[in-house]
Specification:
This protein is of the alpha+beta class. It has helices at 9-16, 65-87, 90-132, 137-153, 199-209; strands at 2-4, 19-25, 34-40, 46-52, 159-167, 174-184, 187-192, 195-197, 210-212. It contains 5 helices and 9 strands.
């Protein structure tokens, strides 16, 4: 007539904080025609409710339409009985939910500790990387800006760039980037990988977060 396809209710509560009792009714193709849901309300207490949908008739069912409908009715009756049962077993639900909360909080704290360790590791790796591969500094960044401006002012196509190396957070490596300048009327516009910056911002970002690839690039 029907099959209950879900896991033990208390086990579900302990694992996820809520439970679903699902029914597969003979004569219909859907895998879960009827579902009883058990969950905590926001304002405390338990919500035990039911939802259903036939999911359509199964062509392979050998019984009559009356038998098909009767199966659904039997399953609905069983769902109602289970709802009544769990409405009287809220203390067991409370105990299972308490176990869930304890385990959830333990996992959250464990994740927090791991995340903090990873953050500290990234900070230390970045510190070491900055020691081993110092940023280009303000003087070099100013020289790059001046050099680009000088080149672009004499350029026919109005754009020039040099390769610099961007510092990835936590010393996860470096990647190539282009620091460029373009001529616009009487002004010089600066960019890094196509993103525009004012001269001051361009210099500040280069000086702190980039390592020069080719020192000859700033030669006069």
């Amino acid at each position: 007539m029907f099959t209950i396809t879900s896991d033990n209710v208390l086990t579900q509560i302990k694992n996820s904080g809520y439970a679903r009792i699902t029914f597969k009714v003979d004569g219909y193709w859907s895998s879960e025609q009827i579902t009883v849901g058990i969950s905590q309300r926001w304002n405390d207490g338990w919500s035990i409710d039911e939802s259903h949908s036939s999911g359509g008739e199964c062509d392979k069912f050998e019984g009559s339409n009356a038998a098909r409908t009767r199966n659904f009715a039997y399953a609905m009756e069983e769902a109602a009985e289970l709802m009544t049962e769990w409405e009287m077993r809220t203390k067991e639900l409370d105990a299972a939910y308490k176990e869930y909360r304890i385990e959830r909080d333990r996992r959250l704290e464990e994740d927090r500790i791991l995340a903090e360790k990873a953050r500290q590791a990234r900070i230390e790796a970045d510190r070491k990387d900055r020691e081993e591969n110092p940023s280009m500094g303000i003087d070099v960044a100013v020289a790059i800006a001046d050099r680009l401006k000088k080149i672009v002012s004499k350029s026919d196509h109005g754009y020039t760039s040099i390769e610099v190396m961007h510092r990835a957070p936590g010393a996860r490596g470096h990647f190539n980037a282009n620091a460029g300048a373009s001529k616009y009327r009487t002004q010089t516009r600066y960019d890094i990988n196509g993103k525009g910056y004012s001269r001051n911002d361009f210099i500040e970002i280069l000086s702190k977060e980039f390592v020069l690839v080719d020192e000859n690039a700033v030669a006069a």
